[in-house]
């Protein structure tokens, strides 16, 4: 789990931040000339069986081979990613989400404790940068499940970020400043790590709370209720010759917003990266690539309003759906100020252009067909480019 903490932002800004864009470009396995690149840069690729892997740019500015050793993948291939969303691709995240406490999880010899207080972290790395790359240059090809079809990169959230930039909101600066200020602390815990190479570990995404100048505590909301099992984790995971491949998994991001929380769960998330493993684990480059359901975006906003915005006097949810069409019950900025004086969160989330445009903008950008039996597209492709550095975790914060 990771917390993105942004204040004084409307829901459109929040969804833009959530949709920071996928981190790497086209699938590897091209039989033509290698693409030019910056030495030491990383990109995603696919093994023969479709498993995600990584490739690294060599000193001569050409891409190296897809690193498939240790990820059950074989050699470099041009197999498109996840051609069908209705098969095994969706099975991974749910296989162990509700596993019994103190039980081993599949694919790695990791035992999670029965309570958060008994949780023992492995090597932990804090995400130190997040970058929004151009929409046409990055991320995962969702194959036949995508609006673009196979062979094209899918990056709906980068497009959304570009649109937001046109409104004068600099999301990149916001991200950079939030990480620097310590209000965004995404911790990657490498459970069961025995050194490079390691083909049986789990990477848990934890919500960090600063504990002094350099240490962190784990937010207890990181765990499934009543257990020491992280809600957000990537399994199985491998670290072979400095290349990390993990997932798929479900990544839950609770967004702190004016004293409340907007919680979103991203599905079918894959984590890849290149790392060094001297003192701790340092990600020189990494990616998180998955999708967010359109209904989950609106559901997160509706839950926030239902929990703390009775002042609006709404008789139903702020956003509702009839068939495939979404509608809103937004109010004007002046009305929100009158209805909810002193409640900036409720004013911000329920009024203005950000509120009224969302039912049109968000579904129009959806590009992933999650359920082929339904018309249209139900998910927005999502990804993040990141770096991360080792930190010390001193325990679990008090509830």
- Helix count equals 7
Order of helices and strands: HEEEEHHEEEEEEEHEEHHHE
The share of residues in extended strands comes to 25-35%
Give the low-pLDDT segments.
1-34, 70-107
Described by its quaternary structure, the protein is: single chain
Shape descriptor: globular
How far apart the termini lie comes to 16 Å
Tell me the total number of β-strands: 14
The radius of gyration computed from the alpha-carbon positions, rounded to a whole number of angstroms, is 21 Å
Proportion of helical residues: 10-25%
| Largest sheet descriptor | 9 strands, mixed
Category by helix and strand content: alpha+beta
Please tell me the overall pLDDT.
77
How would you portray this structure in words?
With 399 residues, the chain is of the alpha+beta class. The protein has a domain at 11-27 and 80-299 and 366-396. 18% of the residues lie in helices and 31% in strands. The chain has helices spanning 11-18, 156-165, 171-181, 294-308, 333-339, 344-350, 352-365; strands spanning 42-47, 52-56, 76-77, 124-131, 186-191, 198-211, 215-218, 233-240, 243-257, 260-276, 282-293, 319-322, 325-328, 379-396. Strands 4, 5, 6, 7, 8, 9, 10, 11 and 14 form a nine-stranded mixed β-sheet that branches. It has a three-stranded antiparallel β-sheet with strand order 2-1-3, with no helix packed on it. Strand 5 (186-191) and strand 6 (198-211) form a beta hairpin. Helix 1 (11-18) crosses helix 2 and helix 5 runs antiparallel to helix 6 (344-350). The two termini are 16 Å apart.
